[in-house]
Amino acid sequence: MRRLPLFKIARRNVWRNKRRTAITVAALASAAGFVVWFSAFGEGFGEKMAEDVVRSGLGHVVVEPAGFEKNPQVEKFLRSPREVERLVEGRPRVQAWSPRVEMRGLASSPENSMGAVIYGVDPRREPRISILPRRLAEGEFFREEEERGVILGYKMAEVLGVELGDMVAVMVQNVDGEVAAEAYELVGLLRMGNPAFDNGAVLLPLSQTQRLLGYEGGYNKIVILAESRADVENIRDGLAAEVPPGVDVLAWFEVSPQAFQYYGMMVGLLTFILLLLIVLASFGTTNTILMSVLERVNEFGVMAALGLRPFQVFRLILYEATVLSALGIAVGLLGGGLASWINTVYGADLGAWSGSVGMMGLLDPVVPFVMRPAHFVLGGVTVFVIAMVSAIYPGVKAARLRPVAAMRRV
Hints:
Elements: H1 6-16, H2 18-58, E1 61-65, H3 82-88, E2 94-108, E3 113-121, H4 126-129, E4 136-139, E5 149-153, H5 154-160, E6 167-173, E7 179-190, H6 195-200, E8 201-205, H7 206-213, E9 221-226, H8 232-240, E10 247-251, H9 252-255, H10 257-294, H11 297-305, H12 310-346, E11 348-349, E12 366-367, H13 373-399, H14 403-408
Parallel strand pairs: 3-8, 5-7
Antiparallel strand pairs: 1-9, 1-10, 2-3, 2-6, 2-9, 4-7, 5-8, 6-7, 11-12
């Protein structure tokens, strides 16, 4: 018996009912396009979240006194940091670095006072490693190391009741265990969109902070910005092997495990949403293919009566699903790729959730997408699998039809 050209028959069957084919292809194309688009969004969202965490002042790698991160005591600081600076300066894959002092203290005005995290920053180097200088709502960033100015989170300034030009007192405990306080002119208001900064950040020039704490040229952090996040662990491990005893070298996810966990949670949530929508798409596709089978019960009965075996009927349904999936993949990848490219160029504005953008870990609501070839592979494979799985039940149902009973169906 001559072998039946089942694939050729399946291809012709697909085009016999153009309306049904269009609906099925549209469903599959939507799934493929959405997988590509949402994968690019998820990649961009994760990249932006991690970059915003790093650029908000955390840095990719931090060099600090041993144990400072767990117990940030004022007595722990790099007393002679020149040796460590030489190890960092000019190191491969290091884009920039800056010294910094971080310490808890108190900010006060004639009207009020509140606890704060005090950041002593280098006016020359800080703009290279963080976005802090570019996030001023009012005023300007420090120009000189000896400038006697202070920058506050804008919400903290509201609580203290101060405006630009007013004097703000900063109080800390110095290395001698004594209370040290100085008054500085308010020269800028910081608006990060992050409550930790907006409600409690105090920025001072590095030299002023060193003088206040009695550090005499020392500091408690070297913040390093890598050329890429892929270089972080290499930089960390290389420095850790060379720094003197009593010095820790930590990656950003070790300095702030909470931020890393939140980053992982958000990426996991986006992955879950994608999987859920894929499952929903598979149900829709199964229903569409099943309806196409039920509409042709009489046809399958005639084919079975003419000698088409059950397994051949099942293969015919799978071949039809293969043709439909190929059409859906082609249309979906084209549409999803175009939409992703537009969002790669212009970004996606999450302004509808602008009130919670800071809570999501983003510094601004515009998220640029990141397109990768893997997204197209994922979209194509996903839709092909959906089509094949969706065709199993209708195919089995068609294969089990009894010829006489099927031919009686109208």
